[in-house]
Amino acid sequence: MIHWKIISSSLQRRKNDMAHLLKLELKKFGVMRNIIFTFAAILFSIFFLTVSLVDSMTDPQQTKDSFDSTFLVTGLLIMMIFLVYASVLTAHTVIAEYNQKTITIMFSYPVNRRQLIAAKLILIMVYTALSMAAAYLCCCGYIIAADKAFDMLDGTFQPVFLQTWIPSAAISIIICTVLSLWPFIIGMVRKSVPAAIITSLLTIFLRQLMISKNSTYQESLLQVCLVTGITAVFTFHAFKKNVPQIY
């Protein structure tokens, strides 16, 4: 009984420490700055889609884009923007602090180093997931509204489309949130900000290469599980090798 009480007390202390670190990192994260970026990214995506739709609608040599093709383009655009930005956040809040030695200030406090880095990564992953969800919602809403007002797409929107769009968007958000860890993995190995950002670009290329072989142009459940498992293993290795667990 005493043994279980000790374990329970230790787990509760770790939970409280992580909650405290998340609150501290959230203050440093710059919520408003990142919200502004998300808003700007959504506006850019809408502008890009508008140019593409107008071009296909007005050019007599082209056929109008379909709802499915426009949704695929939207997903690719959103994924590229926020995966690259996640790498920038990782490079700024983790890798650069190692290079500039500013993270040693935090390491001088009685905090678990791995929990500190984990708190930073959790915030980046949550931000990536929420921003992508907001971008999908806004862009898909815009596509539907633009077609209804100006007949910009081939055919008519049907609610049944959402049965494909929603799961596809959810899978894309999950897989990109997982992939946002790779700039940390490679960046910590190389201790390089450029390496972290270049990794995000390579990740985008490899993901597109992988899903291009699928008829649905989307990751299968097996691929999602495989990518998540591999990422978890390499993330654990990066923590174990590069982030000592001492106070």
Please describe what this structure looks like.
The protein has 247 residues and is an all-alpha fold. The chain is built from nine helices and no strands. Helix 3 (67-99) packs antiparallel against helix 5 (113-150), helix 3 runs parallel beside helix 6 (162-179) and helix 5 (113-150) packs antiparallel against helix 6. The longest helix has 38 residues, at 113-150.
Summed up, what is this model?
The protein has 247 residues and is an all-alpha fold. It contains 9 helices and no strands.
Range of helix content: over 70%
The count of DSSP E runs of length 2 or more, i.e. the number of strands, is 0
How confident is the prediction overall: mean pLDDT? 82
Question: What string gives the helices and strands in order?
Answer: HHHHHHHHH
Strand share of the residues?
under 5%
By DSSP (H or I, 4+ residues per run), the number of helices equals 9
Radius of gyration: 21 Å
Q: Which assembly state applies to the chains in this document? A: single chain
Fold topology:
Elements: H1 2-29, H2 31-58, H3 67-99, H4 103-107, H5 113-150, H6 162-179, H7 182-190, H8 193-211, H9 221-242
Helix pairs in contact: 1-5, 2-3, 2-5, 3-5, 3-6, 3-7, 3-8, 5-6, 6-9, 7-8, 7-9
Keywords:
247 residues, mainly alpha, 9 helices, 0% strand
